């Protein structure tokens, strides 16, 4: 029982995003959703006391577990030290380059979900099964014309198919977090629309969502320096009026790409 492990090692959690998943059924469902094959390397970010880790190790060739808290690293070493199937990286995940892995399965530290997710999306892997705060998960999978649609939604849609596969109640954790949680299935794939320059496209999306209440026309003009187009006031009229009249939350990901490509071509003189 996961609660017994917490008790044995005197781990209380509560601080530093430490909410341990004690619902064994949920843990099993997460591992099943990952459909781990015997030749696969799994990355786990924030391994905690190893409740998920031990289940991942049953199926995988190897698990690479990143954990920042030295007390929890000691628990992991004590429980699994010497097991060749597990590599423990004692570090802040934001300070390490991700190793090569096939799938990422994690109950993430919620306060850094955003940084981790943007980094993961640029990494090569075949599947992610990731626990997030429910509101964050909703923003990841949101479609245009909804209040949850954001820079995160467009980025996620650009890199991957994302869906919420489980809603997780507070009581599934010890100690219970203040928020509901959700497990997201992330399947990276090539973009479904053409982007001439990925960095420019992502910067464009970030810039215009920085002013999500403004119409695209105003937002683009305001960001002319960042977009590298000082003569924007003349050029803007060459962009499609129906897109300029919308707010970022009403633009489809492919429409962001269309605009970014036109702006990029002009900037590069191509
Ligand atoms: C929500 S708990 C999940 C623990 C365990 N995997 C589970 O499912 O119960 C998040 C874990 O991430 C760790 N953590 C928090 N911030 C971290 C960081 N910046 N880098 C690495 N680990 C971190 C915490 O110490 C904690 O063990």
UniProtKB/TrEMBL annotation:
Supply one GO CC term from the record.
Answer: cytoplasm
Question: Mind telling me which Gene3D superfamilies this protein's record contains?
Answer: Ribosomal RNA adenine dimethylase-like, domain 2, Vaccinia Virus protein VP39
The question of whether S-adenosyl-L-methionine is a record keyword is answered with yes
Keyword annotations from UniProtKB, A to Z: Cytoplasm, Methyltransferase, RNA-binding, rRNA processing, S-adenosyl-L-methionine, Transferase
Q: Which top EC class applies here?
A: transferase
Entry keyword Glycosyltransferase: no
| Annotated compartments | Cytoplasm
Locate the Ribosomal RNA adenine methylase transferase N-terminal domain: which residues? 26-190
List ligand-binding residues for S-adenosyl-L-methionine: 19, 21, 46, 67, 92, 107
EC number from the UniProt entry: 2.1.1.-
| Gene Ontology molecular function, alphabetical | RNA binding; rRNA (adenine-N6,N6-)-dimethyltransferase activity
Similarity comment text for this entry: Belongs to the class I-like SAM-binding methyltransferase superfamily. rRNA adenine N(6)-methyltransferase family. RsmA subfamily.
Its biological purpose is as follows:
Specifically dimethylates two adjacent adenosines in the loop of a conserved hairpin near the 3'-end of 16S rRNA in the 30S particle. May play a critical role in biogenesis of 30S subunits.
- What is the protein name stated in its UniProt record? Probable ribosomal RNA small subunit methyltransferase A
Q: Which organism is it from?
A: Methanolobus halotolerans
């Amino acid at each position: 029982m996961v609660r017994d492990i917490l008790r044995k090692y005197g781990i209380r959690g509560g601080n530093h995003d430490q909410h341990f998943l004690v619902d064994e059924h949920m843990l099993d469902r997460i591992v099943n959703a990952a459909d781990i094959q015997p030749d696969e390397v799994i990355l786990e970010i924030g391994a905690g006391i190893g409740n998920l880790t031990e289940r991942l190790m049953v199926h995988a060739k190897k698990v690479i577990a990143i954990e920042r808290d030295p007390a929890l690293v000691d628990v992991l070493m004590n429980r699994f030290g010497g097991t060749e199937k597990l590599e423990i990286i004692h570090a802040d995940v934001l300070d390490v380059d991700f190793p090569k892995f096939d799938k990422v399965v994690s109950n993430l530290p919620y306060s850094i979900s955003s940084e981790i997710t943007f980094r993961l999306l640029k990494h090569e892997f075949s599947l992610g099964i990731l626990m997030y705060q429910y509101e964050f998960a909703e923003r990841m999978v949101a479609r245009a014309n909804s209040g949850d649609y954001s820079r995160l939604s467009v980025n996620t849609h650009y890199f991957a198919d994302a869906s919420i596969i489980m809603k997780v109640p507070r009581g599934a954790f010890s100690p219970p977090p203040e928020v509901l949680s959700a497990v997201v299935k992330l399947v990276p794939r090539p973009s479904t629309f053409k982007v001439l320059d990925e960095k420019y496209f992502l910067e464009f999306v970030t810039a215009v969502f920085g002013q999500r209440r403004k119409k695209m026309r105003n937002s683009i003009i305001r960001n002319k320096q960042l977009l590298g187009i000082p003569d924007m006031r003349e050029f803007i009229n060459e962009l499609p009026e129906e897109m300029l009249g919308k707010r970022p939350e009403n633009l489809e990901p492919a429409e962001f790409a269309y605009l970014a490509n036109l702006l990029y071509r002009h900037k590069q003189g191509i």
